[in-house]
Structure formats: structure tokens, C-alpha cells
């Protein structure tokens, strides 16, 4: 074991060289740990910053509401589908405004819009040979500036005409330039046959 020596000329304590090396090595390891800790903290802050930016980005995915639009008893009319933000996996972020049957845009830009709908084709309640689904853009909840963005048609098939019920689906998707206060809604001519499951009937809009 090394001993500590005292220098009579300057009264300084000399540490054996091996202990100096060990001390330097310890300080180096501590410094590296401290540096690494600062890097980790910095990375975590960047991740949180990026996450907060993602959370603020206008986006929504909405599952269908179990409630049928009370104005949709006449299937010959295309009326808005009601949506529900509380049904998983629904979410809405950013400055989009949700109004039960439509989403209002506040940040102008190009948006990816999609809608998936499933119908139970029951001949007993069919009033039309074709089910039509629309995605519309309105302004201030008026039809004056209404623009049809997408359309889907489901025509009758042999099994349907022969009285065999069964599910069928339609999907619409596209990118569109939207402006502040544009309102996006999904309409269909047959809400009575619309399946009320958020996994099969949904509507989404995301700023690109």
C-alpha cells in the first residue's frame, strides 16, 4: 500500500502516481457520465418538443356515432352522418373544431381526407337500388358555397335483389386545399343501413 509523503520545502502533500491515475480516471468517468446525462436530458427535451408539435398539428379520426341523424328518415336524401369523439380509436388534435356532423378547419393548407363506411344490405328496408356517399366542403354551415369533394356509389347486386342480407363497404380518400372555416362532412343516402361500429365506419382529416 502506498503512503502519503510530506514535502518539507513547500508543505504540499504528494500522492503516489498510481493513486493520481486512479483519481484522474474516476474524474474522467464522472465527467463522461455527466456529459451523457446532459445529452439524454437534451434529447428528452427535443422529443417532448417534437411531441408537442405533433399534438398541435390539425388531425382527427372519428368513429361513427351510435345515434342516427333524426333528419335522415328519408333515405332518398343524402344527409350528414353523426360522429363521436369518445368512441375508441377516435381522436382530434390541433385547432380543428368538431361539431357532431362535421369538422371545421382553422389552419389553411392541404389536408388528406378519408372516410370508410360499412352498410348492412337488408332488402327489407332498401328504398333505392343505389346507396350514394358524399364528402362535402361547406362554408359557415350553408349550402351556398357547398362543393362536392368525393362521391361513392354502391349498386344492388344479385344476392341483394334475391333477398340475402350482407355487409358491404365503401372507402373514399383524397387530398384537398382547404381554407379557414371550411367545413368537411360525410353524407349518405342510406343511414338506416349504416353500421354503427367505429372500426368499420369512420371519418378522418389530417393536415399534410
UniProtKB/TrEMBL annotation:
Residues of the THD domain: 58-208
Record has Isomerase as a keyword: no
Gene3D superfamilies listed in its UniProt record: 2.60.120.40
Chief location: membrane
SUPFAM superfamilies assigned: TNF-like
Localization annotation: Membrane
Protein name per Swiss-Prot or TrEMBL: THD domain-containing protein
Species annotation: Pomacea canaliculata
Amino acid at each position: 500500500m502506498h503512503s502519503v509523503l510530506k514535502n518539507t520545502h513547500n508543505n504540499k502533500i504528494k500522492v503516489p502516481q498510481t493513486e493520481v491515475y486512479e483519481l484522474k480516471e474516476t474524474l474522467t468517468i464522472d465527467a463522461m457520465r455527466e456529459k451523457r446525462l446532459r445529452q439524454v436530458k437534451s434529447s428528452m427535451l427535443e422529443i417532448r418538443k417534437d411531441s408537442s408539435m405533433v399534438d398541435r398539428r390539425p388531425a382527427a379520426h372519428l368513429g361513427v356515432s351510435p345515434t342516427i341523424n333524426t333528419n335522415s328518415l328519408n333515405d332518398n336524401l343524402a344527409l350528414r352522418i353523426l360522429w363521436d369523439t369518445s368512441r375508441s380509436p377516435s381522436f382530434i388534435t390541433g385547432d380543428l373544431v368538431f361539431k357532431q356532423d362535421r369538422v371545421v378547419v382553422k389552419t389553411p393548407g392541404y389536408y388528406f381526407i378519408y372516410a370508410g363506411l360499412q352498410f348492412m344490405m337488408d332488402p327489407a328496408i332498401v328504398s333505392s337500388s343505389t346507396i350514394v356517399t358524399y364528402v362535402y366542403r361547406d362554408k359557415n354551415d350553408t349550402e351556398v358555397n357547398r362543393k362536392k369533394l368525393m362521391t361513392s356509389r354502391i349498386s344492388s347486386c344479385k344476392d341483394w335483389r334475391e333477398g340475402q342480407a350482407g355487409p358491404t363497404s365503401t372507402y373514399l380518400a383524397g387530398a384537398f386545399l382547404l381554407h379557414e372555416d371550411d367545413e368537411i362532412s360525410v353524407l349518405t343516402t342510406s343511414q338506416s343501413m349504416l353500421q354503427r361500429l367505429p372500426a368499420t365506419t369512420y371519418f378522418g382529416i389530417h393536415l399534410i
